[in-house]
């Protein structure tokens, strides 16, 4: 009896070796018969695992735990997140093309719901969803080969799938191409998601999921990395001047498509939709719900760079805002910072007032030269935008003031136009204009100055307009 | 093969099936009717016969009495085929919940497998409800037999389903009481049903052959009668994730009985 038992073991071992030899002889290309087994490094946003340096495929074991946790969605606002690994977005997974992944999905015993995972990097039905359908307190395992390189979204696909995703069940898996990725100085993980709470944005307390808002695609929150403020202030991502920065950008949705943009930077390179193509010099890149993009840029100038969804109300009112802090020396040739600051008064803006400030005393011209000087400034501020620097106007739109028959024929009429505005058809130097000149709110003194300037420029008839003439002209041409 | 073995082992699991007269204590009548289940009827209303249902999910104290009487369901003796390693894991020992015994005696028993729940019911002369019976009874709000068209009723259920488990489950008497007088149909624990894993395989097999049974992703909406009924989706999805020997920390059960023929005849 014992003898037979031993014999059984011996023969089964023998058979095993023979089988392996046969497999080797059949598969000539497979140089290493045994792939190394590696436990995957998993990271929480905004961090990513180290780039892969090995030059051969491996068997990578991924262990991902699903938990349902109450966490901060915004200051004073809590939400029950369903997570891959304890936070939103889920853990970042990094493997190499042709790696064989042994995927373990553990659903924590305290979970209320069953969960599964659909990895877009998987070739096969459901992306692993059916194979990983896991009740609370259970663990499931499946294997896949990462055939296609790229940055892929993974998410829970248990019914009702929208609710599972809306509660935060998504993350990214990077399948590095065989040739590896170009080295950069900093890599970060940024993932956008929209949230649907019963209360409006900022309504305090533990907020339940609102199904109606989700169906209507009216999110209360749109955030990067799981909460308002997850990437700002002390949580901002950082780089030094001269660093090449790579952002692995994902969008979990469930509903919205992101117009991902970094204010003050241009992406030198983008892998649109996380694929193999490279686009260069991109300002804003679309990140589909359930999709990704890899963006790369060199930071040349220190300062704060703001990550936004350029569907900009989401940034301004719903939380889609992150920050990249860049430290280092200035580079004034690329960016000077502010070199001047002055009041800007476009056409008609003389009515603007600086709030809560003393009105500066208007300069008073005591002779024609001074009128000319002050009038020149007034012209630049109030008239030039339309009538142009040399008074030439724009044919068909803004009548010329240079050598203007209309002006020179009746200066008082023109004073009235400045003071009261003009609407309707006029003929200037043979050209018909049918437009509106707004009433320019200047003082009589200012009108005298600007009219004197105009009359003594660009081939007009000259002369000086004084305060008295302005007063009379205004009264005469009042309409 | 396994199923056959299971059936053989189940035979004789319960020695005494007590015959009951009248409406048993702590049970209520659920008058029959029709409803459209989320899955399995091709959007047709189906009939549910009148049945009698436990008012409350089975409690720790009741289950302890059962285990004392049928030692094969003790933690230490249960067959792995019938209950996985998490069976009664919230109990300190075979016949004691432990230090939280007093606090949890009237709380629903959890961490029990389908086999255990089924055996329990049979030993009371009862049975597990079918999915359709359970869903039919769960349509009721406090005041209405069928509140399925009320958004607030849904939202309340959603609120519960999307909250994490409390550390200690409350006593069954404290939970939501519906129109029929059933407690905790919503807002307490998930509950086992007799045909929990048949959501998509009942009916004509040729028709169902291409449907995915596990309700993942968009496939979950295929064949559903009301794609907005998230609450029912979650229950069907939960049931579909189970196997009969699984035990889950928020999954309990209650039992039902058929209405005795003479009572029906009187009405």
Automatic annotation (TrEMBL), chain A:
It comes from the Bacteria. Cu cation binds at residues 115, 120, 155-156, 164, 169, 310. Its EC number is 1.7.2.1. It catalyses: nitric oxide + Fe(III)-[cytochrome c] + H2O = Fe(II)-[cytochrome c] + nitrite + 2 H(+). Keywords: Copper, Heme, Iron, Metal-binding, Oxidoreductase, Repeat. Belongs to the multicopper oxidase family. This is Copper-containing nitrite reductase. It is an enzyme of class 1 (oxidoreductase). It comes from Pontibacter virosus. Pfam families: Cu-oxidase_3 (PF07732), Cytochrom_C (PF00034). Residues 370-458 form the Cytochrome c domain. The keyword rRNA-binding does not apply.
TrEMBL record, chain B:
Residues 25-256 form the Sulfatase-modifying factor enzyme-like domain. It comes from the Bacteria. Residues 1-19 form the signal peptide. The keyword Signal applies. Pfam families: FGE-sulfatase. InterPro entries: CTDL_fold, Sulfatase_Mod_Factor_Kinase, SUMF_dom, SUMF_sf. One of its GO terms (molecular function) is formylglycine-generating oxidase activity. The keyword Cell cycle does not apply. Keywords: Signal. This is Formylglycine-generating enzyme required for sulfatase activity.
